[in-house]
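User: What would this chain look like folded?
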Amino acid sequence: MTTIERTARAASLASQAAVKAKDRSAWVALFAEDGIVEDPVGPSGFDPEGVGHRGHEAIGAFWDKAIALTESIEFRFEDSFACGKEIAFTGLIRTTIGGHVIDAEGVFTYRVDAKGKIAALRAFWEVDRAVATTRPA
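Assistant: Here's the prediction, encoded as structure tokens.
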């Protein structure tokens, strides 16, 4: 594994740890100034226009809408593939919110810049499929 591949893996794991710890400041600081979060990719309730959340202020606002209100978030990834400055994970993200559990199964990618900051976090999952998994915690 190359140094940049190790950097992509380290940045992605740091992102997941900050989310699990509910540490907004640490999470936002992992991103490049012009970094982008697309979670999910395309239009959604979090991003009606489907353009993503670009820059620290927008990424922080995404946190406030999508992560801050959760009781817990678990990353249950089955596998990962580090290639160059990117890494892709397959599996699911389990979210507990409002006493209910939701599983978003998909592919989750992270790309780092030359400084090791996250330039892009992209989550490929289908809202309807995730909603269909909703069950009491």
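The two ends are 39 Å apart (CA to CA). If you want, I can go into more detail on any region.
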